[in-house]
Amino acid sequence: SFVLTQPPSVAVAPGETARITCEGDNLGTAVLNWYQQRPGRAPRVVIYFDRDRPSGIPERFSGSTSANTGTLTINRVEAGDEADYYCQVWDDSSDELVFGGGTKLTVL
Amino acid sequence: QVQLQESGPGLVKPSETLSLLCSVSGDFLYTDYWTWIRRPPGKGLEWIGYVHDSGSTKYNPSLKSRVTMSVDKSKSQFSLNLRSVIAADTAIYYCARVTEVGILNSYYYYVDVWGKGTSVTVSS
Fold this sequence. Notes:
The complex is a heterodimer of chains A (108) and B (124). Helices cover 0% and strands 45% of the residues of chain A.
């Protein structure tokens, strides 16, 4: 089964680029989804299937994967991007959802 | 456009059963997997389980012995029952939809619709 590891926190200044990583063995065999959860709000998907962006999500958000690491990149970070971000996969071997531990993005 | 709304008690006593309902408005026909996810205070998201449109279920192994989920398409609702609750079950509970997308010979999944969440406290 998958275990997804994220850094607990990332901090960047407004206008800079934030990169949030998600590591897991055999991650290359699955597709990665990313969710944003602002304080007091329900999560929402910002990237699905490694790199697809839902309508309404700014182009500043992008996803990529390489070997056992997935990365959510947020360009030109804004104060409104401050949130918890979670990576997630569907484990085909068990048909279960697996979430990473989450990363708190702080905009300085 | 599908919208989800959780309902249920905000306070449950230890050892009792937590029962939540999720009401689905909008298009219920093209469903995939109806799921429950929770977030305990100070912790991250935890997948609880899902019920498929067909009625089949899958639960998080860590909660499997205490969880039951079901779907009632006639009422456009699905439910969560969590038995023998303890303080550690205190959390915000979200109902959500997992969409399945077939691409070539593979299927891919992501959570595309979420309810607003309902806060549940386990305390005597």
